[in-house]
Amino acid sequence: MSDLSTAEPPGTVHAEGGCLCGAIRYRVAMPPAWVAHCHCSMCRRAQGAAFVTWFGIAGDRFAFIGSGDRLRIHRSSADATRSFCGRCGTPLFFESRHWPGEVHVTLASLDPAVAATLQPQMHAYWSSRVPWVTLGDELPRKDPPDHG
């Protein structure tokens, strides 16, 4: 995660988001690289939910608004970290060596007006899904080769 580039193309659209209590706010240059529902067991446990919807953004297209000093980072595996608000606990970001230079951001933490415009493109780690949720959409269901 870094500061947004001052060399962005003219007309770059930005979106903002943050945690429940407002202690952490961020800004991203749109559009994201992708939007997907993740069904892996680690995301389910970290979110306390059946799946989590992420969007991917290049690290140089991400910046904190303010200090971000309430952000807490947890090494969830040898390859990845998950970040959350140290005050309210809102899960916010995921980074992994399997996707270098990319920040995965929880779509639900993006301000609602923008989040509503982004549509998931797939279900990731589909074979890891919970059996007690039935989804009726027609999005592709995939299992990436490396669960990093």
Which features does this protein show?
148 residues, mainly beta, Metal Binding Protein, Guanine Nucleotide Exchange Factor, Chain A, 8-stranded mixed sheet
Please give the structural blueprint.
Layout: E1 14-18, E2 25-29, E3 34-38, H1 41-47, E4 52-58, E5 62-65, E6 71-75, E7 80-85, E8 91-96, E9 102-106, H2 112-115, E10 122-124, E11 141-142
Parallel strand pairs: 3-10, 10-11
Antiparallel strand pairs: 1-2, 2-5, 3-4, 4-9, 6-7, 7-8, 8-9
| The level-1 CATH class | Mainly Beta
Write down how many β-strands occur, each being a DSSP E stretch of 2 or more residues.
11
User: Uncertain spans, ≥5 residues at pLDDT below 50?
Assistant: none
Label the overall shape. Answer: globular
How much helix is in the residues? under 10%
Q: Would you tell me the structural class of the helices and strands?
A: mainly beta
Stated plainly, the CATH topology is called: Metal Binding Protein, Guanine Nucleotide Exchange Factor, Chain A
State the separation between the terminal residues, measured CA to CA.
19 Å
Work out the strand percent: 35-45%
Sketch the major β-sheet.
Answer: 8 strands, mixed
Strand order of the largest sheet: 6-7-8-9-4-3-10-11
Element-level helix/strand string: EEEHEEEEEEHEE
The averaged pLDDT comes out at: 91
From the alpha carbons, calculate the radius of gyration and give it in angstroms: 15 Å
